[in-house]
Structure formats: C-alpha cells, structure tokens
Amino acid sequence: MSYASMEELHTLRKKIENRMQQAYLDENLDIPYLDDYKLLLLQTLFGQANLPDKQQTDYIVTIMLIQMALDTHDLVIRTTKADETADERVDRQLTVLAGNYYSALYYKILAELEDIDMVALLATAIKEINEQKMALYYDTDSAAAFFHILGRMEGALFYAAASPFIKTKELEPLVDYFIISRLNQEAFMNEPTPLIIRLGKILEQDHSTLTITEAINQELEEASERLTRNLHKMPQVYAAAARRLLLQENRQEELYLEEG
C-alpha cells in the first residue's frame, strides 16, 4: 500500500511544469491550471501498479499534459466572437498555439513510450472526451445532465489509464471526485470559462430559479455527500485520496463561513 506524500506530488508537479516551459508562451499567457487532485489519483494508480519509476512518471506527465492541452483549447471558445478586439484576437491565437504546443509535447512523450496499448487507451479516451464535450455544449438541457457529463468527461483519461491495472467499476465513486475537482478548477479562474457560461445558458433555458453559483454550490454539496457515502466501496488507497479532497472541501467551507 502506498500513499503519495506532498513531496512526491511536488516533484511530479515540477517535472510537468518543466516540460511545459516555453519562453514566449510563459511571458504572454497565464500558466495553465494543474489539478493537484488528478495528479494525486494518477500517482496513486501507478504507484499501486508497481511500475518502474520512470514509467510511472512518463505516464503521469503525459496524461496531465493531455488534460491541460484539452483545457487550453477549451478556453478558445470564450474569445471567438465577431466583434473581438485586436488584443483579444492575439490572445485567442496564442491560446490556440499553446494548446497545440502542449498537444505536441504529449504526442512526443507517447511516441517515446513505445507503449502501443497505453497510447491506444489514451487516444480512445481523448475521442470520448471530445464526444462528451459536444454533448455537453450542444445536447444538454438540464443542470443534472450537465454535471453528470462533466464527471464522465473529467474522469475519462484516468479510467482509461486505470483499466489495465484494476477493475474500474471499483473506482466508480470517483466520478464525484472528478466533478468536485473540476468545479474547484473553475472557481480558480479569473473570469467565467466556456463551461460556466454554458451552465448559465442551461439554467436559463430550463427556467431554473438557481443562479450559477447556487447550482455549483448545490452540486458540490451533493457530490461530496455521495463520495463520502461511497468511500467504503473503493480500495483503501483511493478512499484515502478521496478523503484528502473532501478534507480540503470542508476546510474551504469553514473558511467561507469565517469570512462570511
């Protein structure tokens, strides 16, 4: 049994950040969000699989780069509009380039891995994510359906990578983990992302009485309750990782209450 230490996670984060460095992009764009909780789950997964250290690191760095490339391309939707200013156009073009750059990095690492099976699994997951994304942006008509698809989309890379090592049905409760971590990521952004704008439109079309913030807070509370209720169904190391996330959620809630 192994639990990821903060030092191990910090080391992995530094390796990912080093891989992503590109002087011009670093100078002109915000650093992409790196989800520490997805990092924790991947470290737990590959640590449990007893893979060689280098293979573990290569898998983790690759999957996190894929996630950040997908997230970066998503941001382009925000600024694609007919009346965009020159600065907005430059920002959009740079964001596209950044997403392409991160994509090129993970393709390079995948090629170096020479692991056809893992490459095929991740490629299938990317296809699934893009299909889920289309459903989320164009076919979803309720907040409940929005959050359901969000959880599946956010967990797709992890479940694909986990499938050779564990029965992924045992990790089904982690869908709520992915919902919580993604909503925390959205809260970290300085302005509404395309995802949040889409949620707002769904609430409006559904004649919901909830604001976007109320809908997110309600989902965070419900996802936390579901995850807590289902901890016992997962292998112990994954339950321990989920408890870390839930503990952080409780701390944030206490902080909000104190500030309120």
**Helix percentage:** over 70%
Oligomeric description of these chains? single chain
Which residues form runs of ≥5 with pLDDT under 50?
Answer: none
Distance between the termini: 41 Å
**Strand segment count:** 0
The major beta sheet can be summarized as: none
Order of helices and strands: HHHHHHHHHHHH
Averaged pLDDT? 86
Shape call: globular
Taking all Cα atoms into account, the compactness measure Rg is 18 Å
Tell me the strand percentage band: under 5%
Strand pairing plus helix content: what structural class?
mainly alpha
Number of helices: 12
What would the keywords be for this entry?
12 helices; mainly alpha; 260 residues; globular
What does this structure look like?
This protein has 260 residues and is mainly alpha-helical. It is built from twelve helices and no strands. The radius of gyration is 18 Å and the shape is globular. The model has no long low-confidence stretch (mean pLDDT 86).
